[in-house]
Specification:
This protein is an alpha/beta fold. Helices cover 46% and strands 16% of the residues. It binds NADPH dihydro-nicotinamide-adenine-dinucleotide phosphate (NDP).
């Protein structure tokens, strides 16, 4: 059984990615920060194919320890999904250094450290695929998210640099979700208010939010041999919200 690692793999989009990879036959290691019940629930849903391991991605020491554990216990992964991400939205003029550092540490430095720790063993074992979960706001800015948008823009450039340097062994691509129906997004944009939801849907040609399964479908393509000539690219999955 080949191994896949999914950061933030126990909630929201990451949970759906873990479950899809498990259904495809991977042994999935889902990393999470602190939500134990969500981790247990995802393990149970994975029917023996998903193992959740705690690792704070803002801590390089924890990333190195968990990477050594994964490699030692399960062998080199053939798939790495850098999915974990956080928002700490504030207007730029009230954004603190801590708001900036925390978001950049999770969304950009986390993928750097995790990829840096696992890519060498992936190459040695014959290669594979890395998928970085960025965001459409990496290519089009939004208010109150200078830290988040900058972190995701950086993640796209990291994707391209790794695609260049890790070729031809590892393909590295970015998946850019638009509005996707997760608890985090519903709370942050208060989409349980029908008027707010309608206002958002007015801007989306597909007239619906993305589902976590939409993102899993895109991931399935990016890790499969059907995308074997695709590397260094950004796949936008947003119902046509941002074009071009
Ligand atoms: P959620 O908030 O639902 O889930 C985030 C996951 O990341 C959780 O499993 C969480 O672990 C984990 N995580 C957060 N911080 C850390 C950390 N320091 N160390 C380890 N794990 C951490 O997010 P979504 O599912 O909504 O988003 C997933 C990804 O998709 C993110 O990168 C996000 O930026 C991106 N995205 C989402 C969109 C959307 O509309 N939902 C749109 C565009 C991009 P725990 O549960 O333990 O806290």
């Amino acid at each position: 059984m080949t191994t896949a690692v999914v950061s933030g793999g126990t909630r929201g989009i990451g949970r759906a990615l873990s479950l899809r990879l498990a259904a495809l036959g991977y042994r999935v290691i889902a990393l999470y920060r602190g939500d134990g019940p969500a981790a247990e629930q995802t393990e149970r849903a994975g029917a023996g194919r998903i193992t959740a391991l705690r690792c704070d991605l803002t801590r390089p020491d924890e990333i190195h320890a968990v990477s050594a554990r994964i490699t030692g216990e399960y062998g080199a992964p053939s798939v790495l999904v850098n999915n974990a991400g956080v928002n700490r939205d504030r207007s730029f003029l009230s954004m603190t250094a801590e708001d900036w550092d925390m978001v950049l540490a999770t969304n950009l430095s986390g993928p750097f450290h995790l990829s840096r720790a696992l890519a060498p063993v992936m190459v040695e074992a014959g290669g594979g695929s890395i998928v970085n979960i960025a965001s459409t706001t990496a290519i089009r800015p939004r208010s109150n998210g200078a830290n988040y948008c900058a972190s995701k823009a950086g993640l796209i450039q990291l994707t391209k640099c790794l695609a260049l340097e890790l070729a031809p062994h590892i393909r590295v691509n970015a998946l850019l979700p638009g509005f996707t129906d997760t608890d985090e997004v519903t709370e942050r944009y208060r989409l349980d208010d029908p008027e707010r939801l309608a206002a958002v849907l007015d801007t989306v040609p597909a007239r619906r939010l993305g589902t976590t399964d939409d993102m899993a479908d895109a991931l399935e393509y990016l890790v499969s041999t059907r995308s074997s000539y695709l590397t260094g690219q950004q796949l936008v999955v947003d119902g046509g919200h941002f074009m071009g």
